[in-house]
């Protein structure tokens, strides 16, 4: 099997009786990319991932891996592997046997599958626990085993469905660094479903924002964050104000708002909230049209000239900071 194949979704559609869960989406995942599918609950992320994996039938359209149509192949024949949210480890099998399970199904002899399982366990730094059962492992350790189990089939694309959601916040950040390291070392594509913007920004070379069964915007993480194309993306990525101005709707990053004396900015607003956030202070003000605007000000700067609710301030921004929105 050739390594490093591009994955292409062509008008990919999923219908469940009466519901269109994925509506003719098209996307080209370059080989070796770390991509995050990001979007609110119910937007079609998991259905997309499950179709790529072969765990869900394709209603219309196709999936090409390395130029070959894999849309109707069984999961084990696609060159993809999936790591599930629940890890789905077999409780009665040791860590090593869990990792080697798919090779056993494929009829590989025990010596070979144990050797391959041990290689995978080394990769995820779990060699010392190879003889344990899953219930003798922490959540983070179970996740490593699930990763090793998915990777043993040498997939070209690893599919991860909310892989970090069961972990506590501290472990989540550690495991996210691990995922990135593994992806870099293996050089294969990872497609990771999440509804966490922070997670997507931290991990992804490319972010694909989905909304209501469609792709709303796709591109490098920095582009999607800095230049959202729609109000939905700006709001969903967070950190932006979406303002309806005479020239149209624009997205403006909260940390690029400039607070000035009243009448000196582009708009005036009355302060409705002041929230201390440690490194920054979030100032919320209401401008014309009852629109709320948040300005994120470095804390030292805020305390040079503190402001209080009720005060009227001016708000400014550089032209380059305002991104016109399609809707
Ligand atoms: N097996 C199914 N039968 C019928 N409808 C389904 C089925 N699976 C998903 N759906 C519907 O399809 C739509 C997309 O679901 P999907 O699980 O792909 O979304 P998601 O973005 O992954 O959501 P979440 O973040 O909550 O997991 C939803 O409206 C959901 O209710």
Automatic annotation (TrEMBL):
Lineage: Bacteria, Pseudomonadati, Pseudomonadota, Alphaproteobacteria, Rhodobacterales
UniProt protein name: Putative spermidine/putrescine transport system ATP-binding protein
GO term, biological process aspect, one: quaternary ammonium group transport
SUPFAM superfamilies: MOP-like, P-loop containing nucleoside triphosphate hydrolases
Domain ABC transporter residues, every copy: 7-237
One of the record's GO cellular component terms: ATP-binding cassette (ABC) transporter complex
Pfam families listed in its UniProt record: ABC_tran (PF00005), TOBE_2 (PF08402)
Superkingdom per UniProt: Bacteria
InterPro entries: AAA+_ATPase (IPR003593), ABC_SmlMolc_Importer (IPR050093), ABC_transporter-like_ATP-bd (IPR003439), ABC_transporter-like_CS (IPR017871), Mo/tungstate-bd_C_term_dom (IPR008995), P-loop_NTPase (IPR027417), Transp-assoc_OB_typ2 (IPR013611)
Keyword field: ATP-binding, Nucleotide-binding, Transport
GO molecular function terms listed in the Swiss-Prot or TrEMBL record: ATP binding; ATP hydrolysis activity; transmembrane transporter activity
């Amino acid at each position: 099997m050739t390594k490093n194949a591009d994955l292409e979704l062509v008008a990919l559609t999923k219908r469940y009786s009466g519901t269109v869960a994925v509506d003719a989406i098209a996307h080209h995942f370059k080989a070796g990319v770390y991509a995050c599918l990001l979007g609110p609950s119910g937007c079609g992320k998991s259905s997309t991932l499950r179709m790529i994996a072969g765990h869900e039938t394709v209603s219309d359209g196709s999936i090409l891996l390395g130029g070959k149509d894999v849309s109707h192949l069984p999961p084990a024949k696609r060159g993809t592997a999936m790591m599930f949210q629940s890890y789905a480890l077999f409780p009665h099998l040791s860590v090593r046997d869990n990792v080697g399970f798919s090779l056993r199904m494929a009829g590989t002899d025990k010596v070979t599958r144990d050797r391959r399982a041990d290689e995978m366990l080394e990769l995820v730094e779990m060699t010392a626990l190879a003889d344990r059962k899953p219930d003798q492992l922490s959540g983070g350790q179970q996740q490593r085993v699930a990763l090793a189990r998915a990777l043993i089939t040498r997939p070209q694309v690893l599919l991860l469905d909310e892989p970090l959601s069961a972990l506590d916040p501290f472990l989540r950040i550690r495991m996210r660094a691990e995922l990135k390291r593994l992806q870099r070392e293996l050089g294969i594509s990872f497609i990771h479903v999440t509804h966490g913007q922070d997670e997507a920004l931290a991990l992804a070379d490319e972010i694909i924002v989905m909304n209501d069964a469609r792709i709303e915007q796709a591109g490098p993480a920095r582009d999607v964050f800095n230049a959202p194309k729609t109000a939905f993306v700006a709001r969903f990525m967070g950190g932006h104000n979406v303002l309806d101005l005479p020239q149209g709707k624009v997205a403006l990053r909260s940390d690029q708002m400039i607070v000035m004396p009243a009448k000196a900015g582009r708009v005036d607003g009355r302060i409705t909230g002041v929230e201390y956030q440690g490194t920054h202070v979030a100032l919320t003000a209401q401008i014309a049209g009852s629109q709320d605007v948040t300005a994120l000000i470095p804390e030292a700067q805020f305390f040079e000239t503190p402001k209080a609710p009720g005060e009227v301030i001016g708000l400014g921004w550089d032209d380059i900071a305002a991104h016109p929105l399609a809707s």
